[in-house]
User: Fold this.
Amino acid sequence: MRICNEKCRNCWAIRFCNICFTWLIYNDEIDKNKMNRMCRNLKRTIINAFLWYLYILERKPKAFEILFDEKNIKGGGECV
Ligand code: SF4
Assistant:
């Protein structure tokens, strides 16, 4: 995959990012203010998700086992 946006290339959140650039286009250009707002919000959401994950894991180390157990994945974890 080729990443054209310079800001994204250097972004720590890129592997978790779900921002679609079609949301950011205004008059055939990327609306930088909108992008900055959306990036900031997305990064906060990611940080909060990690904080919650760690918070729960500290208190209940087995809390997420059910999510990663292949028996609980529809189709036994195989690609369909
Ligand atoms: S958060 Fe923003 S800068 Fe980072 S990858 Fe997503 S769109 Fe790019």
Summary: The two ends are 23 Å apart (CA to CA). Residues 5, 7-8, 11, 13-14, 17, 19, 39, 42-43 surround iron/sulfur cluster (CB under 6 Å).
